[in-house]
From TrEMBL:
Domain of life, source organism: Bacteria
Keyword Metal-binding attributed: yes
Species for this entry: Neobacillus ginsengisoli
Protein name in the entry: Glyoxylase I family protein
Start and end residues of each VOC domain: 5-128
Length: 128
């Protein structure tokens, strides 16, 4: 068996319109397809990340909250690569999105920061 890439990352949100606005208007992901699944009373929005990756944004009625922060077992966070970390932080700040202080990865010497989506999912920007 040989894995050839990551096909998609699925995110369940508590407020579909708010999360859709965040991922499309703030992060700039490109909508591919949006469907309403009547049998589940649920929306599914496929979003392109730079034409190479895909995020699936789901709505479900009354999804349970995330049990704890990134130190819980399971997916720790979602990371996006950016060209200029300071410009990315300035952009988020202009949208009233608070970021952690910029840090430096001690192994790669690359700069990064964290912030949250509307459901407090930790998101990282990692400088290319």
């Amino acid at each position: 068996m040989k894995l050839t890439g990551i096909h998609h990352i699925a995110i369940i949100c508590s407020n579909y319109e708010k999360s859709k606005d965040f991922y499309v208007s703030v992060l700039g992901l490109t909508p591919i397809r949006e469907v309403y699944r009547e049998e589940r009373n649920s929306f599914k929005l496929d979003l392109a990340v730079n034409g190479h990756y895909q995020i699936e944004l789901f709505s479900f009625q009354h999804p349970p909250e995330r049990p704890s922060y990134p130190e819980a077992a399971g997916l720790r966070h979602l990371a996006f690569e950016v060209e200029d970390i300071e410009a990315a932080v300035d952009y988020l700040s202009s949208r009233q999105i608070r970021t952690e202080p910029i840090r430096v990865d001690p192994f790669t010497n690359k700069r990064f920061t964290f912030f949250e989506d509307p459901d407090h999912l930790p998101i990282e920007f990692y400088e290319k």
